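Supplementary Methods, section 5.1.

A reviewer requested that the exact input to the structure prediction be made available. We therefore reproduce it here, unchanged from the version used in the analyses.
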Amino acid sequence: MFYWVLKKIFLGPLLKLLFRPWVKGLDNVPETGPAIIASNHLSFSDSIFMPLMVPRPVVFLAKSEYFTGAGLKGKLTALFFRLTNQLPMDRSGGAASANSLSTGADVLAKGGLLGIYPEGTRSPDAKLYRGKVGVAKLVLSSGVPVIPVAMIGTDKVQPIGRKLPNIRRIGMIFGEPLDFSRYQGLEDDRFVQRSVTDEIMYELMRLSGQEYVDAYASTVKERQSSRKEGEAAPPVTPASAKSPLRDEETEVPPLNPASDATAEPMGSEEAAS
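The structure derived from this sequence is encoded cell-by-cell as follows.
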C-alpha cells in the first residue's frame, strides 16, 4: 500500500513533473509473470526513477548497508527501503550472497519483477563495468526472461556523494526480453554463467552507449579510495587476468563486448548478477 501511495499520489507525480523522464521500449516489460530487469547503475536514484515508470511493482536487491545504518537516519533509511519493495543484498560473497540470491529467487517464484544491477555497485565514472554472475545464476535456475534497461543521465541528476539532486531530464531504454532457455540444465556451469553475464553487459553497452571497462567497478572504487588515503593502490587489471581462485566466479576469458561494438552478442540475450 505504501509503495502504491508513494508512486501514484505523492512522490511519483512530483518526480515526473520535475525530471520529465522519457522512456523507450516500456512495452518490452511483460504485463504478468516473473522476469528480471537488469540495469546499468549510474546513481542512487536509478532505483527510484526506473520503478516509477514501470506499471508493475519492481522489487530491487539493494546493498545490505542500506538496511543496517545506525541512529535515526539509518533506521529511517532502512524503513524507506523496505516500504518501497527493496530487499537487502549481501555482496560479501560466499553463503551470505547465496542467501541473498535465494531471496531474489523467491520473488521470481511468486511471479514478480526483480530488479538487479549486474555491476554490483554504482559506476564511479559513468562507464560500464564488468558484470558479476549472480543474476546469471538466478536466470539460469529460474528460466525467466531478462529485460535489459539502460538508465540515461541519472549520474548528472545525482552524482555519487551528492545528497540533493540536480533538476534535469533523465531517460531510460528498455531492451527486448532475453531468453536463456537454451542453457537449461547448465545453471552450475561457470563458463555458461560468465557467457550469460557478458551477453547482458554487451546489451547494456549497446543500449546505453557507455564505454565498457573490463574490470569490476568495486575494484576501481577501492583503488580510488586508496589513492585518497595516500596508500599504495593495486593496479586495475582486466578481470580475466585474475586468479580463478580469487573470488566466487572462477574467471574465464571474458567476451569483452567493448572490443567489437558492431558484433552481435552470443545468442540474443544477456543476463546480469
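The CA atoms of residues 160 and 224 lie 13 Å apart. These observations are discussed further in the main text.
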